[in-house]
């Protein structure tokens, strides 16, 4: 009988450490502002350059332009990690694109319809992980080439830019 009591106590106590592990809180740096991605460099956060891309339409497609040839926010990390405190924006709706520098501006060109669509910019794959309610980790899952990049919420002209070097 004492063995059965000891076994019962052991079985009842065993799930407690597992439950404690599951509720581990994020203890790293936190973004100051909501709805703005921050570049994570070790334990330091760098706010991405926020801008609104100017949109111009032609019969062949849509061109989005951001002023300035390069972003003031730079990273040497080929697969950068961002932290994002969500309020109005859904981090799962952020898309990462490589921009083209033309005439002192950064541009994205989306051709209209048909087979030209394959000539448009290819989104870079990112993985979004919830660290805790309202706080997300956005990881680039393929090495980035040197250049200009922007994260943009789907359906918006807002862009959050950075340079890879």
Count of DSSP-assigned helices: 2
Strand residue percentage: 35-45%
Specify the biggest β-sheet: 8 strands, mixed
* Average pLDDT over all residues: 88
In total, how many beta strands? 13
Tell me the helix content: 10-25%
Order of helices and strands: HHEEEEEEEEEEEEE
**What's the shape?**
globular
Give the domain tally.
1
What are the segments in which pLDDT stays under 50 over at least 5 consecutive residues?
3-12, 14-21
Coarse structural class:
mainly beta
Distance between the termini: 69 Å
Cα-based radius of gyration, to the nearest Å = 22 Å
How does this structure look, described?
There is one protein chain. The chain has 165 residues and is mainly beta. It has one domain. It contains 2 helices and 13 strands.
């Amino acid at each position: 009988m004492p063995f059965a009591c000891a076994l019962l106590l052991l079985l009842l106590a065993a799930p407690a450490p597992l439950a404690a592990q599951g509720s581990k809180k994020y203890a790293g740096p936190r973004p100051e502002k909501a709805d703005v991605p921050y570049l994570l460099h070790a334990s330091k956060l760098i706010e991405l350059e926020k801008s609104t891309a100017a949109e111009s339409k032609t019969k062949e497609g849509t061109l989005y332009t951001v002023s300035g040839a390069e972003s003031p926010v730079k990273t040497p990390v080929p697969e950068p990690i961002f932290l994002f405190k969500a309020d109005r924006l859904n981090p799962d709706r952020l898309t990462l694109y490589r921009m083209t520098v033309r005439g002192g501006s950064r541009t994205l060109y989306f051709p209209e319809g048909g087979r030209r669509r394959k000539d448009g910019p290819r989104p870079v794959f990112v993985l979004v992980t919830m660290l805790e309610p309202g706080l997300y980790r956005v990881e680039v899952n393929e090495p980035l080439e040197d250049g200009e990049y922007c994260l943009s919420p789907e359906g918006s002209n807002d862009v959050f830019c950075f340079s890879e070097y």
